[in-house]
Amino acid sequence: MADALKNTIAKSLECPVCLNTFTDPKILSCSHTYCKDCLDNIVKCNGNDQILRCPVCRAETQVSNQDVSKLPTNLALMSLIQDVKNQYQFCTNCESENKLQNVVYCQDCGKYLCITCHNKHSQRPDCISHKVLAMSEILSGKVSVHMYRKCRKHPNEDEECFCSDCRRFACFRCVVMEHTNERHRVIDAAVYKSSHMKDIEDLKSKADKKSSCLQKYVDFIDEQKERVSNVQKQCTNDINKAYEESVRHLTEKKEILIDEVKDKTEGVEKELDEMKKSAQVHITHLTTIADVVTNKTKIPLDMDALAAHDTLCQDLQEVLKQEIPDYHQPRQSSKKGNSVIFNRNVGMEELDLGKIVTAVEKNIALPTKNSMRVMVGTPEGKMAVGCSSGGVEIFSADGQLQQTVLKHVGIRRVGFLSDDRYVVLGGANNITLYTIEQTKLNVMFETISPDDGGFAGITVDGDDQIYVSYRKAQKIQVFSPAGGEAIREISCDGFEPEQITSYNDYLITRSRYTIRLIDKQGVVKYKLTELDDFPFAAVSQGGAILIAKLKYDIGLVSIAEYTNELKLIKNLVVDYKIEKPERRWYYLQQYLSGEIALCTPDRLYIFH
User: Fold this and answer.
1) Which CATH number covers residue 46?
2) Is 515 contained in some domain?
3) Which PROSITE patterns has this protein been placed in (predicted)?
4) Which tens digits make up the pLDDT trace of 269-295?
5) In 3D, which of 590, 564, 589, 566 has the Cα closest to residue 505?
6) Are 424 and 546 members of one domain?
7) Is the pTM of this model over 0.70?
């Protein structure tokens, strides 16, 4: 009976959450008690909620600022725990009255053992696998003593069964007397424990998966945050660069204006200096003669002195007879200098550093995957996407597929003449013209075959001249719409023209990591080299040059605006995420209405 009482007391000292002996027990408003650390963990699970729900009865307890330490401590329970720890100081296995102090506790036997009993216990074959705990660990609270579960009504009986409906363990006698009808589903306690542990493992696995999912979400947020940070850094760098270029431009302009002012005013100053010098010489001459004549205290008597005096007086008279100084000449010279003024360009755009823009996009899947070969603007302001599998798909500026033309014609490149005729380049580098009604015209062009010239590209200029570029041959042929032989050739010495675009009296070419602006004799005027990413160029509606740079491996696109000298004006799109296509082939164009279109082999992106 005493052992049963000890077991009952020991079970009452276990926290229902951690199943270990209470440490720093705290009482909830419902009178249930839990370890402080267990309550801390429960509060953390509630987020910012300051209401703590009892795990047993679900009653609510207010926890100010989620500070569990402010809950009342169960002092009586703490005292009982200490008493229980102190009472097990002697061996419960010795039969002699002079019991020795215990050193271990056997979880399986439920007994405290001294050294002698422990040695005997460990030598018994049926006790070798028993779990034995050192008393020092028990008293320190590092481990909890798990007693045999004995029935409270029948202390000599183990609770070998579990009633799923009553949610409690029971001995066999209790099952027979109290858990017999259909409302009671009784199973073996070991089966329940095994099932319970499996449920716990399943919950733990689900929790780990959920945690992993949330961590991926956190990582995604960090990635987005980093992209925003990169945009901020890029914009800041662009602003600083624009500022420095503006300062440099203003400094150069200032020096030019200052030099211009000097050129216009220094000549006037020189004229005035010469007038001043002449007047000063006249003053000196006048004062010198006057001093000689008027400073004589004696009247000249002899002939020589009298003659000299008369001569000096005559000279002075001549000087005095000279006209009053002419103010008109210096006034006229001064007028030329005073007419130089500086008019400040108030409100002009010379100091404009650009503006921050937000890219709003449309993402449209192309009807035929991985078939895009070219994209070009149509005369009526739409966008034409040519497909190698056949057809030219026409998209509006809002991303709507308007129609598909030339459905059975394999397209490598396409362009438009001023009368809306289609210029189609086929896989054999052959050029075919089609009317707006899609009628094939009987016009032949003597182009170079792929074996001799390599892959070709085309563009059409404002004079309806057709330019055909050849990568392998490294040259560009120029044809008239009438067909026949090329009217001239442009050499591309040292680079392969992979894409070409007509730009006023020039051509924009792309080859690997370089964009070149060449004239129609093949002379390279400007080039943008050593670009880390694949660049693609187009002409903006404002006459500037648009260049898209693609980071293929990570699927990021940036689009910027450049001058006709290939100097950066501003960034329009920075590190926009696109779906990574199978092929590294893109086209960039701008709608007449201003939207920028980027086409990959699979998708069309439209930026406003």
Assistant:
1) 3.30.40.10
2) yes
3) ZF_BBOX, ZF_RING_1, ZF_RING_2
4) 888 888 888 888 888 888 887 777 776
5) 564
6) yes
7) no
